[in-house]
Write a structure and sequence with these properties.
Keywords: ATP-binding, Nucleotide-binding
Pfam families: ABC_tran (PF00005)
GO molecular function: ATP binding; ATP hydrolysis activity; transmembrane transporter activity
Shape: globular
Largest sheet: 6 strands, mixed
Radius of gyration: 19 Å
Protein name: ABC transporter ATP-binding protein
CATH class of one domain: Alpha Beta
Number of strands: 10
CATH architecture of one domain: 3-Layer(aba) Sandwich
Structural class: alpha/beta
Distance between the termini: 44 Å
Bound molecules: adenosine-5'-triphosphate
CATH topology of one domain: Rossmann fold
Amino acid sequence: MLALEGLHKTFRLGGGWERPALRGVDLVLQEGEFATLIGPNGAGKSTLLNAVAGTFRVDAGTVRLDGQDVTRWPEHRRARLIGRVFQDPLRGTAASLTVEENLAMARARGRRRSLRLAVRGRERRLFAEWLEALGLGLADRLKQPVGLLSGGQRQALALVMAAVTRPRLLLLDEHTAALDPAASRQVLDLTCRLVAEHGLTVLMVTHNMEQALRVGSRTLMMQDGRVVLDLRGDDRRRMGVEGLVERFARVRGQRLVEDRLLLG
Ligand SMILES: Nc1ncnc2c1ncn2[C@@H]1O[C@H](COP(=O)(O)OP(=O)(O)OP(=O)(O)O)[C@@H](O)[C@H]1O
C-alpha cells in the first residue's frame, strides 16, 4: 500500500548549516495496517509524515502509494489519496465555516469535484447520522461555526472529515496530544472505530508508549532519521510498556552520547 525506499531529507538552514532529518528510511505498510510511530524529539517522525504527504521534495528515495510512484507528485495531488490530522485542532477544520459546511468540504474533496458548500436536506440528514453515531454532542451543532467547538470536538470533526473521504492512507501526527485526558481518550476511541469501519491504512505518531503498543497492529520507533525498531505479531504482544520505555531510553541515551561526542 505504502512503500518507502531509501528516503533521505536534509534541511539546509543557511550559513552552511545542515540538519539531516531522514537518513535512509525503508518502510512498507500493507493495506489495512495500522502502525504507530514513536521516537525521541527530533528523530524525524513529522518529517517522515511530511515526506509521505509531499509537503516537500525528498533529496533521495521513492514514495509509492498503491504501487504508483508519487515521489514527484505535489502535496495537493497526493491529498486525494492521503488524509491527515495534525496535533493542533485548528489545522484540520475551517473555524469560520459551520460544522456541516466543513463536512461538505471534506465530501467534495473526496469526490474530486470543485468545492460546493451548500448543504441540502438529504446530505444534512446524512451528516447528522454520522455525528449522532459519534456521541460527542456534535449532531445538534451542524449549523454552528466550528470556531465555537471545544478542542476535542474539533479534532473529532477533523478526524471524521479525514476518514469520510476514504483515504488510501491516513496520517495522524500526535492528533490527541493537545487534548485533555478525557477528550484524548474519546478521540483515540473514535480513531479506532473509524479506522475499523473504513478499513483504513494508518501511520500514527504518538509520544505515549501505552498507545504505541496497544493501538493498531504494528509499532515503529525512529531515531536519528532511521527506523530502528519494527514490532508486530507476537513480538509486539510480548513487549510491555516497560520494555518499550527501556528501548526508548536506550536510543535516546545513545543520542545524548552522540550529541556530547559531537559537541566535545
Ligand atoms: N522545516 C525545517 N527546517 C529545518 N529543520 C527542520 C525542519 N523540520 C524539521 N527539522 C529538523 O529535522 C529534525 C527532525 O525533526 P522532526 O520534527 O521530524 O522530529 P520529530 O521526531 O517529529 O520530533 P518531535 O517529537 O519533537 O515532534 C530535527 O532536527 C528538526 O530540527
